[in-house]
Each structure stands twice: as C-alpha cells, then as structure tokens.
Amino acid sequence: MSEHISEIEKEFLDFVKKMQAYSEALGLIYWDLRTGAPKNGVEQRSEVIGMLSSELFKMSTSEEMAAYIASLSGHNLSEITLKTLEECKKNYDRNKKIPAKEYQDYVVLQSKAESVWEEARAKADFAMFQPYLEKIVEYKKKFVEYWGYEENKYNTLLDMYEPGITVDVLDKVFGELREAIVSLVQKIADSPNKPDTSFLFETFPKQNQKDFSLKILEQMGYNFESGRLDETVHPFATGLNPGDVRVTTRYDENDWRTAVFGTIHEGGHALYEQNISKDLIGTLLCSGTSMGIHESQSLFYENIVGRDFSFWKQNYDLLKEYASGEYDNISLEDFYRAINESKPSFIRIEADMLTYPLHIIIRYEIEKGLFNDEIEVKDLPKIWNDKYEEYLGIRPANDREGVLQDVHWSGGDFGYFPSYALGYMYAAQFKNSMLKDLPNFDDLLAEGNLTPIREWLTKNIHQYGKLKKPLEILQDVTGEGLNAKYLIDYLKDKYTKVYNLPVETH
Amino acid sequence: MSEHISEIEKEFLDFVKKMQAYSEALGLIYWDLRTGAPKNGVEQRSEVIGMLSSELFKMSTSEEMAAYIASLSGHNLSEITLKTLEECKKNYDRNKKIPAKEYQDYVVLQSKAESVWEEARAKADFAMFQPYLEKIVEYKKKFVEYWGYEENKYNTLLDMYEPGITVDVLDKVFGELREAIVSLVQKIADSPNKPDTSFLFETFPKQNQKDFSLKILEQMGYNFESGRLDETVHPFATGLNPGDVRVTTRYDENDWRTAVFGTIHEGGHALYEQNISKDLIGTLLCSGTSMGIHESQSLFYENIVGRDFSFWKQNYDLLKEYASGEYDNISLEDFYRAINESKPSFIRIEADMLTYPLHIIIRYEIEKGLFNDEIEVKDLPKIWNDKYEEYLGIRPANDREGVLQDVHWSGGDFGYFPSYALGYMYAAQFKNSMLKDLPNFDDLLAEGNLTPIREWLTKNIHQYGKLKKPLEILQDVTGEGLNAKYLIDYLKDKYTKVYNLPVETH
C-alpha cells in the first residue's frame, strides 16, 4: 500500500513539474513581450500564450489531478508533496466550482472591460466604464457564492492574495494605521519645516542612473549570474526559477528617483525569488508565498533600507559621482529630508511612503463596501473623491486622477490592493525582529554591508517559498500576529525627524 | 462523409497549431539562452526545454497523429492541409521506424559525443573523439536501414535537409564546381595582382559597426517592427513567426567584416522568414522550405548583393562615415578588391567566398564515403588533410584546424553540409533568373534601392514557406533543375576582375 502511494506521489510530482515547466515558459514569454518583443509578432505570440495557459488550466482541473488529490490526501507524504497537494487542491476547487460557460463569458468580459477602462481613463469618463465594472462586480459576487465564504464575502477574495487575512483583521489594523497617518499628514501640512527638493529634478543621464542602480543592486546582494536588469515602461521583477530572476526599471532623466528606488524595490522582490530553497524547484512552491509577503521584501529594501539615513551615509558620495555636480553643495541631511518628502497626491503609484497606505485603505474600504452591498458601482466617483478629501485633504478634479487610475478592477482583481499596505506593515514588523538579531542594523547600512540583512531575510523568509503561509511566517519570525504598531512607530519616528515635528507627549 | 472529413481536418489543424505553439515557445527559449539568459537559470531552463520538446515529439508520434494521417490521406483537402499532412507523415514515419530504446541510447551518445568533441578539439586529439564518432556513424547507418533508402544510403540523409537532392545530382554539380574553383584558386595563387587588405583591420568601434549594420539591414528591407538585432557569440537568425524574426551578430573591433557581412547574411535568412505568407502561420509550413534554399537567401544577400561593386558604390561613403578615417585615401576599387580577397585557409567558417565550396565538397565526399563503407572513421584525419592539400593546396598542421573543426558530426548531422554549397548554387541560379525581370539589377544596388529585389524574392520564394519543395521552387523560378554553371560563371567573372586574371579563350 505505502509502496503504491509512493509511486503515485512520484507520478504526481512529475505531473506538477510539467505544469511548472509550462509556467516558466509563459513567464519568459511575458518578460520578452514587455522588454522588447517585436510588435508584429505579438498577435501570434498571444496564441502561444493562450495555448500554454489553457494547457496549464486543463492540467490543474483534469481528471488526473482529481485522482491525485483523491488518492494522496490523508496519506503520509513528504512536506513538499503535502504542501504542493494543498496548493493543487485549492486551485482545483476554485476552478471547478465555477461553471465553465460562466467562466468563459467572464474572461471575454474582462478583456473587453480592460480596453474600455483604458479609453475611459484617457477620457476621464467613468460613465463609459461603469456598465462594465458593474458586470465584473456582479460576476465576482456570483463566483464568491460558488466558492463559498466565511463571515464576510470579501474574505474569500482576500484569501486569494493573502491567505489568512480577513476583514476583521484589516478593519482593526487599517483603522489604527489610518488614524495615525491622517494625524501625521495633518501635522506635516502645518509644519513650517518643509524640505527643499528642487535639486532632485536636475538632469541625471540615464546611463549614470543605470550604473548607479547596478552598484546598489550589487550592494543588496542581487546575484547577476541569476538575473539581469532591463528597461520597461512598467517596472517589474519576475522569478522564472531561483537561478533566473529578472528585474526591470524605468528611467526619467529629470527624476532619478524613479529608476533608483524602483530598482531597489524590484531588487527586493528579486532577492526573495533568488533565495528560495532549490529543493522547491519544479514544485508549485517555488515562488513568494503571497503578494503581501512579496511586497514586504520590496518595501523593506526600498524604504526601510533605501530611504534610511544610514544607507545614504554610505551611498551619497557614490550618487554624487554619477550625478552632474548638483549635489556638491547639498548636505547629507538636506538630501535625506528631500528624498523623504511627504505630500498628499492623487495617484497611488506616485505617492510618497507616508501617504501611500491611505491610498490603499481607501480602495479597501470601497471594495469591502461593494461586496457587502453597501456601495453601488455608480456611486464610486463620489465616494472615492469624498474619501480622498477626508483622509488626504485633497479632491481629485476628474476621474482620471481619481477612481479610474488603477487597472486592477477592470481585470476583476478585487482583494489585491490590501497586500500593498500589508507588505508595508509586515516589513516594519520584520525590521523590529531583525533588530534583535542585528542590533547594529544602522551600522551595517552605514558600512554598505547589507549581507547580514539579506542572510537574515533568506533564513527567516526567502528560503521557504510557499512552504509556509504568510501569517505562519509572520508568527515564526516575530512571535505574534499582524500588528500595525510597528509601522505606526516607524512612520511617527521617521517623519517627526524629517519634518522636525513637535514630539508627542502622553 | 465529406462533412465528417472536414471536421477531422479542422481538428487536425488545431492539433498542429498546438504543436506549432510549442515550437514557437521553444524558439524563444533558445533565443533567450543565446542572447543573455542568466547562467544560473540554465539548468532548470533545460528541464523546460526537455518537457516541451518531449511533448512535441509525443504529439508528432501519437496515436492521434496516426489516426489523422490514416483518416485524411487520399481525401480532397485544402493545399495547406495536404502539405501539412505530408510533413506530419514524414516526421511520423521517420520517428516511428526507430525502436524507442535505440533512439534513447543514441540521444545519450550524442550528448556525450558533443562534449568529448569539444575537449578533443581543444586538445587537437582526434583519437579521443574517434570511438564516439564511430558509434555515431554506426547508429546512423542502422537508422538508414530502418528508414530505407533508394540507390545510395547517403540519399536518405541528404533528404532530411534537402528533399530531392541525391548523390547522383551532387556528384555531377560538385564535380563541376570543384574543377572550376580549383582552377581559379590556382590562377589566383599565381597572380601578381594581390589586393592590399591591411586597412580592413584598423580599429572600428563596435557601436559604429552596429549603427552601420542597422542602416544596411534597413536598406535590405528588414522590418524592425517584426524583428530585432542582438549580439551573440555565434550569429544566427530565428523566425518565431513572420512577425518576429530576430537576428544576432558578433562584433570584432579589429575586423568589421565579421559583423557587417554576418548581419547581411543573417538578414538574408530573416527576410525569408519575415515574408512567408501569413496564411501559413500556425501550420507546420511557416518556415523556410529547406536548409539549402534558406542558405541561398543569406548568401544571395551576403555575397551577390553585399560584396558587389555596385552595392558599395552606394554604401562606401556611408561606411566611411562610421569608420575612423582609415578609408579616406582608399579608392572604391581598392576597397572592393580587398573585401573580395580569396586565399586558401583551413577553417570553413572563416573561408572566403571562392574557396568556401571546396570546404563543403571535401566534407560531402567524406560523408558519402563513410556511409557507403568506402571510408573508415579511423582514417579521417589523413583523408581530410590529403583532400585539403589536393583541392586547396594547404595541409592542416593538426586536427583542430582539420577534421575536428566542425560540431556537426558529433551531433550526427550527416547530410547537412551540402546545403551550404547548394545554397550558393541556388543563389547564383536565382540571380540569373532575376536579371530577366530586373535587368537593371546593378543600378538598383548602386541606388540603394533593394526593394524590387526583395519583392522579387518574396514573390518567387519567400511567400511559399514549406508549401513548395526546394527543387520545385528552383524549377518554377528558373525553368530548370540544379545547374552549377551559374555559380561557376559568377565566380569566374568576379575573380577574374578582382585579380585581373588572364581571360580564358576557348
């Protein structure tokens, strides 16, 4: 019997390996499409994508898969098989519960909705997009019924991106975070100590930005024999396998921060994927465990490392070497304050690192309202603008800089946004734990010795891939569940210093 | 009945479309591996290649395929279906006739042989490679028995690369060609009018070589919205689909001809693939019809266009712009003679365009001898060197510059070499026919107007992909079969002028 099971286990792992091979091929095709595939080949390349994706989908919902799940469940399996099986079962259930015809109609709708959204955004015309968004939400609500839910319908959507996170958890932490940030934003608005940022916008040659970014990636411990840096309109990191994790960035010659902080951010994602245990290659576990944990790694590097004063103690002189003299008379302190400026703005992806979570919280509150029938699609523009006014003190002039700015909803990606802010909270919470092992954290940054930091993250987070669930990692690393306190403390401390705010007394 | 057949036909075409999608994905993976995939990802990428290739192989030899062949053969089908079915049947028969176990052993041997060959070549030690080559030849002979053959065993191998070409045909044309070239080589050796080539080896910055090459590609009519130019150690062109045909080149700052003529050569291959009829996308017919016809296109551009006097009338000033002054005092005539220098040399891929066919003919004679049991592997070094001495008047000092120089035999690719010289003959023969439609060929080159030339090639050759067999194209375009006369006339005419040889009298 057990010999029989071990045979099925082997077959199952081979089956999964094939799925993983298709995924890797797809990953490379997507990378290629974004980094310079010739325009006229795209149509036929889409056919290839369709073919491979549908093969992958078929395998994940096949009778073979059902048989593997049925025969292996409940048996004594290796940890890797067990977790891979869990992953497969989750996908199988999710995909099988929706009637095939409905899903096909939904996919067609999605693709139409995305192109309508693009046009609607260009014209700042929400009314044009509204009927499509209404249908998308309607489908998604039906899907939630098929999938089932516990306590709150929105929980099922959250679970897709951040397993274990629920509305109860988010209401608490986002509530605390919102209150703290809104208060800080108000104080900053009132502060007379605004940093001068004018010098950030002097021309900085693209090649120099690239050379500097490469130096920083190297300092972070990004392995160039397991990756490469390319240029794209929308920067991303993609882990094809731990030996091939590619990052891309975008260059703005009038604002070097786009490329440099962008590269550090994607580099943080990339370090995660490069350092997953090789034992997980070819399973379905060889990638970051969740959107939120992934974002914790990119934000850890972008902000907690990359916008830290000690980090620039080490790197400011290097930046000056690549710049064209505009920083020669700017002190490190003034430079540091400039790159940490905070100012309410409309566009999420351009937001500073203090106001950013408010953009997320607004989207969370709206999504939750939609799926609990408390908000209707037609009212979104007004609700959106009201919330921006309430939390950030600014009101979008039109829907392009308001409710139409993000692509996510046109693709039905509800439940995704919270991950961004969760990642930020995780990052601050990890930093707190890291300090117990590396109390000399600031010195390490100041020395440009980021190796112990990367090793700590690999040991505690990266290596596990999807072997551990996000909240399991959080618990194992920090000894507690999600706690907004760490990010709040970090933000208070940082922006109090940057803006020389009056220190709170209790 | 006919309705039933048309249903099966549709299913068959869908099946083939899927095979083609896997091929395209594989093509992109290979391109990526050669143009900059990170080293550490290669091992896992090989797994992906293995998975997709074996899927493709399984499909081509599947029971489904057998059923399609059985049910569709003999029925009234569209031309595309018919030719696709022929292609599938050919592959099916070829793959099914070899016992699976033998084929697997052979694949293992191949991969060992290739790495042994690499080491043997580095050490110039044929004895090391000999036992592997003997086994490869032995397997290949057995395969020929399985596949069957007509008249000559080597015909079966020729048929894999150049359907329709036989030993009878090659003996005749290669015999004529050899005689003519050997005689020209002798006359050139005796000629006092050797061109000065020293100026070709002045430093030419890589970026300038690239910019110049791009201008020439543009002039050729290479569509940059359907392709891109990258850098690799071994240049190649790859047609993923007609909208995505990529070329690569190599830069040598001390000899710009490597990059420029290499780019023109690969550009010639690329024009073929870019201009295949879109109707053939997704079938198995959407690529060049044979190795030889493919090579005819690259050699047509590299030599008949790219090393022509009129071509440089147009482009010599442009070259001077990108060079660093070393051509300012060199006349167009002297430049033209320099780039057409001919001098016997040992290494095939570095040979000039007169002696090149001799390198091929030597390999052809040896391969034919091996498969007809007239030559034994152990005698190859001596036979090789004797032939070089006889035809080219030079004798390799060791096996690295002799019999070990090419990778082909270690992979069992017998029958492939003749295509290179066939391509050259086809090219000269096409040129002759083209002159009837474009009698102003020289003027077109001198004006830099290569459009009518590309359009002629597209109309007569490119568009058909694999819809026509090589000899069918030759017959349709030139009204006759393979004829060595055109290449011989071309070579005599050209090198008589370049070396100011005494004109033959009859």
From TrEMBL, chains A, B:
Q: Which reaction does it catalyse?
A: Release of a C-terminal amino acid with broad specificity, except for -Pro
Q: Which residues bind Zn(2+)?
A: 265, 269, 295
Keyword Metal-binding found? yes
**Could you say which cofactors this protein requires?**
Zn(2+)
Q: Name one GO biological process term.
A: proteolysis
Q: Which keywords does this Swiss-Prot/TrEMBL entry list?
A: Carboxypeptidase, Hydrolase, Metal-binding, Metalloprotease, Protease, Zinc
A Gene Ontology MF term for this entry?
Answer: zinc ion binding
Enzyme Commission no: 3.4.17.19
Could you name the domain of life of the organism this protein comes from?
A: Bacteria
Instruction: Write out the catalytic residues in the record.
Output: 266
Co-factor remark: Binds 1 zinc ion per subunit.
Looking up InterPro entries in the UniProt record yields: Peptidase_M32_Taq (IPR001333)
Q: Does the keyword Zinc apply?
A: yes
Family statement: Belongs to the peptidase M32 family.
Summarize the protein's role.
Answer: Broad specificity carboxypetidase that releases amino acids sequentially from the C-terminus, including neutral, aromatic, polar and basic residues.
> Would you tell me the protein name for this molecule?
Metal-dependent carboxypeptidase
Instruction: Please give the organism.
Output: Heyndrickxia shackletonii
